[in-house]
Amino acid sequence: MRYVIAGYSIVLAILFFYGVQLAWRRRRLVKAAQRVQAFEATVDDGRVGP
Amino acid sequence: MSPNQVVHSPLDQTPRARRTLRIIGIAAVVSTAFTVWLGLWVTPPDQVQGNLVRLVYIHPGVAWVALYLAFGLAAVSSLLYLWPRTRSLFWDRLAAAAVEVGVVFNACTLISGSIWGKPTWGVWWAWDARLTSTAVLLVLFLGYLALRRVPAEPDVRAKRSAFVALFASVDVPIVHFSVLWWKTLHQGATVLNPNLSPTIHGSMAWTLLLGFVALTLVFVWMLLVRYRIGALEDWLGRGELNVALLERQAEGGHLPVVASELVGAESVVEATPECEPEPVPEGVTR
After folding, report:
1. B93 partner at 20 to 30 Å CA-CA among B70, B109, B196, B221?
2. Which residues numbered 221-240 in B keep a CB inside 8 Å of some CB on A?
3. What residue ranges do the domains of chain A occupy?
4. pLDDT (tens place) for every residue of chain A, 50 residues total
5. Which of B248, B255, B253 shows the shortest CA–CA distance to B286?
C-alpha cells in the first residue's frame, strides 16, 4: 500500500504545486498589466509628459 | 505590427469568464477528491494486483490528459496556426499552454507508472516500447518549450514552434499503438482497446471513469489559466514598446516597479528608467 500512497501523493502534489504556480504567475502578470494600464492612462490624460 | 499581433487587454475579462473558470476549478478539486476517496477507501483490491490496482485510477487519467488532450490539442492548434486561413496568435498561445500543461501530466504519467512498475515488475524502469516512447514524447515537448524561450518575433516563434509541435506529435500514435506493434511489458489498453470493450467493471470502472473526468477538469482549468498567462505576457510585450515610447515622451517619466513584476516578459526590463534619455538638441521638440 505504501507504493499506492506514494503514487497518489507525488502525482497530486505535482499537480497542486503546478496549479498554485500558475495562479501566482497569473496574479503577478495581472498586477503588472494594471500598472502599465494605469501609467498609460496617466500619460494619455496629459498628467505626465511634455 | 501585423493584424494577428493585435492583442486586446487581457484585463478585460468578463465576469462570466471569471465565474466559469472558478466553477471549473471547484469542480476539478471536488471530483479529484472524490476519485481519491473512491480509489483509496471504497473500491476493493484486485484479485491479481491487490492494492496496486488503486494506482490505475489515476495513471491512465494523467496519461489520457497528456497524450490525447494536451498534445492532441497542441497538434491541432499548431496546424490551425500554420493554415493561412486560420492563422492567428490565438492558436499559438493555445498550443503553448497545452504543451506546458501536457508536459506536467506526461511527467506524472511516467512517475505514477514507475511507482506501479517497481512492485509489479520489480524495476522502476524498463526500456519497454510504451515507456520509452512516452519518455521520448516528454523530451520532444520539453524541446518545444525550450525553443519557445529563444528570442524571436512572435510570428517567427509561432511558426517554428508549430512545426516542432507537429513533429513531436507524431510520437503520440506511436505511444498509443506501441503495445500492439511490439511485445511490451506494459499491459494493453483497458478502455481504448481495439474492440472498444472495457476490461474493467463495477465500482472499479466507475472510479476509473471519474478519474478521467476529474483529471480532464484539472487540465481544462490549468489550460485556461496558462492561456491567460500567455495573453498577459503578449500584451505586456506590446506594452513594452508603448512604455519605451511613453518614457521617451515623458522625458524621464518613471514606470515604477513594473519591470520587476513582469514574469516571462524579460525584454521589458530594458525599458526601465535606468536608461539615460538621449539629450535633445535645442529647438527640437519630441
Report:
1. B109
2. 221-222, 225-226, 228-229, 232-233, 235-236, 239
3. 17-50
4. 889 999 999 999 999 999 999 999 999 988 888 888 888 777 766 655 55
5. B248
